UniProtKB/TrEMBL annotation:
Entry's EC annotation: 4.98.1.1
Bias-annotated ranges (Basic and acidic residues): 356-368
Function of the protein: Catalyzes the ferrous insertion into protoporphyrin IX.
GO molecular function: ferrochelatase activity; metal ion binding
Major localization class: cytoplasm
Descriptive protein name: Ferrochelatase
Region called Disordered, residue ranges: 344-368
UniProt similarity note: Belongs to the ferrochelatase family.
Record-listed Fe(2+) binding positions: H214, E295
Source organism of the structure: Ramlibacter algicola
Catalysed transformations (reactions): heme b + 2 H(+) = protoporphyrin IX + Fe(2+); Fe-coproporphyrin III + 2 H(+) = coproporphyrin III + Fe(2+)
Length: 368
């Protein structure tokens, strides 16, 4: 048998086809269904990534396949079932909507030669399949836009790894750019502020606001990961814009896993402590998640609520993520446009249009 070719076949080339630019909006991922087999497939891919679990493979993989997947898959499937939407997984639904709206926002801003797709780091649609699709559509330049505002080796760097894996089997590579972070982007902060204020206009203000970010092991901070610092800056900017003093808000970290020491303070422990101190109402928002998902809709809106009320709290509010909020789509379009700078993303002006434009300018000058 002939040996397999190391590189995949290139899509058909059409002479005269104008090159285009692609934007790939990448989120973490989700199971295809809220079932034990689907969740097990998803968790196997997710937890096998050495960026996510920095434990020697020889020690980690037997534990993952022999203990964690058999025990955790069915429990996680039940959690997913509790938040599943009619259209599917909330994370996938919101990310797909964001990509479509981003396409429209960029087009309205004059970037007509940009094609936007979305992908998941784990699960479907995969990063590789969507990069293939953009290439087949004529994209010679691709911007990889992370859905993670704060950079982390566990998330952002893993996206770059996935793109690198894809590139190793591609003969004709497109130009590639990556958006690594936008934790302090003014548009992103504006959108967060608008979301919190809209909730408060409808429901009144809380006694305390908790800003909950996804947790990572503490050792990642000690090893130089900037995630903790970027979460801190996002929280400070958001709280400042909301006019809150230090006694009115707390930054926390959620989604702890395993026995290692994680970033603190922990979200659930903080909610219990606030209730024990007599805080009657708490609002929780999750600035690090741009789409509502299992971690916000189940871990915060359900488990967090139970923890706070059981500890003596009286009123708990989860403030939705940015999702498809117009302010967020404008911010996302602004972030993408800045990183697209210098690439041909607008339709070329024809000689006739250029001549008409000059005639109008000359006529206006004569009128003055």
């Amino acid at each position: 048998m002939p040996a397999a070719l190391p590189y995949q076949t290139e899509p058909p080339f059409t002479h005269g086809q104008a090159p285009s630019t692609g934007v790939l909006l990448c989120n973490l991922g989700t199971p295809d269904a809220p079932t034990t087999p689907a969740v097990r497939r998803y968790l196997r891919e997710f937890l096998s990534d050495p960026r996510v679990v920095e434990i020697p493979r020889a020690a980690w993989l037997p534990l993952l396949h022999g203990v964690i997947l058999p025990l955790r898959s069915s429990k996680s499937a039940a959690k997913y079932a509790s938040i599943w939407m009619t259209e599917g997984s909330p994370l996938k639904v919101w990310t797909e909507r964001q990509a479509k709206l981003l396409q429209g926002a960029l087009g309205e801003a004059g970037h007509q030669r940009v094609k936007v797709r979305y992908a998941m780091r784990y699960g479907s649609p995969s990063i590789a399949s969507q990069l293939d699709a953009l290439k087949a559509e004529g994209a010679t330049r691709i911007l990889v836009l992370s859905a993670y505002p704060q950079y982390s080796g566990t998330t952002t760097a893993s996206l770059v790894d996935a793109v690198g894996e894809w590139s190793r089997r591609v003969r004709h590579l497109p130009e590639l750019r990556f958006v690594h972070r936008y934790h302090d982007d003014p548009g992103y902060i504006d959108a967060l502020v608008a979301g919190v204020q809209a909730h408060w206009r409808s429901h009144g203000k809380p006694d305390h606001l908790v800003l909950s970010f996804h947790g990572v092991p503490e050792r990642t901070l000690q090893l130089g990961d900037p995630y903790h610092c970027e979460c801190q800056k996002t929280a400070r900017l958001l709280a400042g814009r909301l006019g809150l003093d230090a006694s009115q808000w707390t930054l926390t970290f959620q989604s702890r896993f395993g026995r290692a020491k994680w970033l603190e303070p922990a979200t659930e422990a903080t909610l219990r402590a606030l209730a024990a101190k007599g805080v009657r109402r708490v609002d929780v928002t999750c600035p690090g998640f741009t789409s509502d998902c299992l971690e916000t809709l189940e871990e915060i809106a359900q488990e967090g609520r139970v923890a706070f009320l059981q500890a003596g709290g009286k009123d708990f509010h989860h403030i939705p993520c940015l999702n498809a909020d117009p302010a967020w789509i404008r911010a996302l379009a602004g972030i993408a446009a800045r990183h697209l700078d210098g690439w041909p993303t607008r339709e070329p002006v024809s000689p006739q249009d250029l001549a008409q434009s000059r005639e109008r300018a000359t006529a206006m000058g004569a009128e003055r």
